[in-house]
Amino acid sequence: MAFFRDSRRRIGRQILAGCRRLKDLFVGKPALPGIDAFPRKILIIRPYFLGDILLCLPIVQAIRQQRKDAHITWLLRKEWQSLLQDHAPVDEVIPFSQQRMHSPAAIGEFLRVARELRKRSFELVLNLSWDRSSVLWSWISGAPVRVGIEEYGRPRLLSLLHTVTVQAPERSQDDRHMADFYYDPLRLLGFEPRSGQPHVAPTAPELDFVDTRLKANFGKMPSFLLVHPGGRLAYKRWPVERFAGLLDRLEQQTAHVIIVACGPGEEPWASALVAKRDSGRFLFWPSPSLGELMALARGATLFIGNDSGPMHLAAACGCRVVAIVGADSPRWLPLGEGHLVVRDPQGLEKVSVSQVVEMVNQEPMLHL
C-alpha cells in the first residue's frame, strides 16, 4: 500500500509541477516583495490547533522587527480568538465559526469571511494551513502575493491559487521543528532563519482571578506544579495510570501544591486523578480558559504534560516544561531554554514514572 501511495504522490507532484510551469508561462511569475520594501497590510491564515497557532507566532515577531508599522490580521477559528486578540502582537483577528460542511450556515459563514477579507485590501497573504477553505480564502482576499504551504508532498491542484508555494518535504525526510517549517514562507521572502520563539502573556485580570482563587483555596499564594495529563490526540497521551503514579511520587517527595488541569471532555477521567487526595495539597482545575491556563503557567514552578497545545502554551508563557513524548521526531518539542523532554525510543507507553521523576528532579526548586 505504501508503494502505491508514494507512486500516486510522485505522479501527482509531477503533474502539479507541469501545471505550475504552464501557469508561469501564461500568467508570468509573480514579483516577490523585497525585504526592504515589505508590504504593510498582511494576512496570516492558520485557523486551528492551539500548538500550531503558537508555533506560527515567531512569524509575527519577525515581521514586527522588519516593519514597525505593519498591520497584521490573522484568520482563525472563533475558539482561538482570545488567544491572539488579547495575548499576542497582532492588530486584528477575523474569527469564523466551524460549521457542518455544505450546510446553509457554513455557506453563509464562508461568504461573510470572504466579504471581510475583500474589503481590507491585503498586500500579502501567508497561508500556513493547507485545507481547501484556507486556500480559497487566500485567493478570495485578492492580495497580489499569496504564499502558501503544500502539505508534506501531497499535491493538490487547488494550491495553484497561491502565487507562490513552499514545497514541504515528507515527514520522514525532515526533522526540523514545526516552527521552522511554518517560518519557511518568510525565508522565501528574504528573512533570516527563525531565531525567536512564541511569546504570549496573560492579562492582569486573568492573573488576578487565578491568584484570588488559589489564595482562597490554600490561604496564601502557594508554590505549585501544574500537571496537564490531557491532549487532543489520544496517541500522544501518556497512560492515565502513569500520571496517577507520578502524582503519588510528587505528593511524597515535594512540598509544592499540585494543580491538575484538563481540557473539555477530559473531566471524568482527569478528576479521578485527584479524587480522595489531600485537598490541602491538590487542586483540580477542569477546562480552564486560555487566559486562566496562561496565568497558571506563568505562576507555576514547572509544567508537566504531554505533547499538546497546553504544553506549547506553557512554554510560550515562560514556564519551564517537562514534556512526556514518545518516539516522535523532534518537530513538536517545546521551544525555548531550559525545557526537559522524557522520551523512550520504544514509544510513549514505555516511558516510566521513574523516568519522569528523574527529569523533574532536575528542577532545582523542587529537591525531590
Description:
It is built from twelve helices and twelve strands. 38% of the residues are buried. Helix 2 (50-66) packs parallel to helix 6. It is 39% helix and 17% strand. The strands form two sheets. Strands 3-2-1-4-5-6 form a six-stranded parallel β-sheet, with helices on both faces. A six-stranded parallel β-sheet has the order 9-8-7-10-11-12, with helices on both faces. Strand 1, helix 2 (50-66) and strand 2 form a beta-alpha-beta unit. The mean pLDDT is 90. It is of the alpha/beta class and 368 residues long.
Strand order of the largest sheet: 3-2-1-4-5-6
What is the terminal separation in angstroms? 49 Å
Outline: globular
The biggest sheet, with number of strands, parallel, antiparallel or mixed sense and barrel status, is: 6 strands, parallel
Radius of gyration: 22 Å
> Tell me, what is the CATH class of the largest domain?
Alpha Beta
Total number of helical segments?
A: 12
| Portion in beta strands | 15-25%
